[in-house]
Amino acid sequence: MAENSHNILILGAGLVSGPIVELLLKDAEYRVVLADIDVRNAEKLLKGHPHGKAVKLDIGNHTALQELINNADVVVSLVPYALHPTVAKACINAKVSLVTASYVSPAMGELDRAARDAGIILLNEIGLDPGIDHMSAMRIIHQIQKKGGTVTSFYSYCGGLPTPEDNNNPFGYKFSWSPKGVLLAGKNDAHYLKDGDQVDISGVALFQHNWEVSLPSGEVYQTYPNRDSLSYIKTYGLEGIQTMFRGTLRNANWCETMDVVKKLGFLADADADLGTTYSPRTLTAKISGLSESNLETEIVHKFRIGENGPEITALQWLGLFDATPREWRANTPIDCLTALMLEKMSYAPGERDMVVLHHEFEAEFPHGRKKYFSTLKDFGIPDGHTAMARTVTLPVGIAVKLIAGGQITATGVQIPVIPEIYEPVLTELEKLGVAFDEQEISID
Asked: Are 388 and 163 in contact (CB under 8 A)?
């Protein structure tokens, strides 16, 4: 082993883990231990690399987890977000820094003092959204402020979508990351600021609150609110701003269709109480309280949608009206829906995904007003890494290198909104082809 090598522990060998493993193993300074509950996933990503080691790990085994972390210089957690605090506590015990791509949960936030006392950083929200969105926004915000300007309006939109040529299903969507995670996000409440007024949207009505957004290049997408935009006013240093909105991007008809899916009861996580073998049609009727024999007609009437409209077309295509019994591995509506979507909405060999991230700012200066546009588009590699995987884990990998090399010295619970973090990460991302097209326009 090289004298100055860094030992990196990566927890989770899922859909997005490939690019960070590849990035770190390209550099002879790094040794990677990749741990997953299914060691075969880790072995597949490491491809026998001499500087990589695959390990079977159940995060619930605290002794085994702590032992792995004790032998690491930096830890990356790509496991489900609810497990991050468990990992973080073990990192604090070992005085080893942690990097995740997930939102800072209340449980993670509570570890700030302990992390500072341990002299380590718990760096979160450094994926795509959240992550690259924060960093690219802060770069422009700080540029505006250095020129004496005040940001009065900020819209940020992000989505992972199939490329236009591979957008070939009625949902206009395919899964490039955790399907259940996508569905669970559809239950979140949302809050944002519009022209000085706070707008609060309940999770029940989330998909009903959507509109079209046009990019400078001409593409048109649907957007709907993404969680709590208000909390980022302080984080971004934008006190006094009049409009603050963070939204998700999707193709046409996604919101209307998913609103019906939600109203039918498919995002529920209670057991459907149907045994293990039953048809999707039986499930749809059971959870919605509608007649199985007259299901389509009752859905059209109950939700006031077109008999041949995009919503009913999408539900039919997905197989929710299929009367053929099948065996289910899980029996909650959301798990059954996830299974059906994975079967029909995964990327086929040779297909590509794309990531679209777009910011719009308005700012006031002593001598006029300006508008700023910043747009990132990244495309998956056919039969290679997806754009989602690249944009989620490349910034994580870059941050790992910066922490291991001593360039990032901040401690405590952090997100990448300070120049010490975002400037070098964005610079390295640009070298890897992940770059923004930026425009500045005078509007007075």
From this structure: no
* Residue 229 CB partners (closer than 8 Å, separation 6+): 190, 191, 192, 193, 244, 245, 246
Q: Which two tokens stand for residue 192?
A: 């944002």
pLDDT, mean over the chain: 95
Which residue, among 139, 134, 157, has the nearest Cα to 212 in the 3D structure? 157
Q: Give the number of C-alpha atoms closer than 13 A to the C-alpha of residue 399, restricted to the C-beta side.
A: 34
- CA–chain centroid gap for 334, Å, is 19
Q: Which amino acid is at 163?
A: T
Residues 104-122 pLDDT 10s: 999 999 999 999 999 999 9
CA–CA gap between residue 157 and residue 138 (Å, rounded): 15
- Catalytic residue check, 271: no
pLDDT for the residue 3: 52
Query: What residues does 353 pair with on adjacent strands?
Result: 162
Cα angle vertex 349, ends 343, 350, to 5°? 135
Determine the average pLDDT of the residues in 49-74. Answer: 97
Position with higher pLDDT, 224 vs 184 = 224
CA distance 105 to 186: 18
How high is the pLDDT of residue 290?
A: 96
Domain 6-124, CATH number (from 3.40.50.170, 3.40.50.720, 3.90.1280.20, 3.40.50.80) = 3.40.50.720
> What are the pLDDT digits (tens) for 160-210?
999 999 999 999 999 876 788 889 889 999 999 999 999 999 999 999 999
How many other C-beta atoms can be found within 10 angstroms of the C-beta atom of residue 220?
Answer: 10
Are 104 and 125 a contacting pair, CB within 8 Å?
Answer: yes
Question: Could you give the CA distance from residue 173 to residue 161 in angstroms, rounded to a whole number?
Answer: 6
The set of residues, in sequence order, having a beta carbon less than 8 Å from that of 330 and lying 6+ positions away, is 336, 339
Q: Is the distance from CB of 230 to CB of 191 less than 8 angstroms? A: yes
> And the tokens for 335?
């798990």
Give 320-370 pLDDT, tens digit per residue.
Answer: 999 999 999 988 999 999 999 999 999 999 999 999 999 999 999 999 999
pLDDT digits (tens, 9 = 90+) for 272-307: 889 999 999 999 999 999 999 999 999 999 999 999
Helix axes 333-344, 310-318, angle to 10 degrees: 90
Distance between CA 4 and CA 2 in Å, rounded? 6
Domain edges within the chain: 6-124, 132-257+348-384+437-442, 271-331
Contact 440, 375 (CB under 8 A): no
Which of 129, 259, 335, 353 is catalytic? The answer is 129
- Could you tell me which CATH number the domain at 132-257+348-384+437-442 has? 3.30.360.10
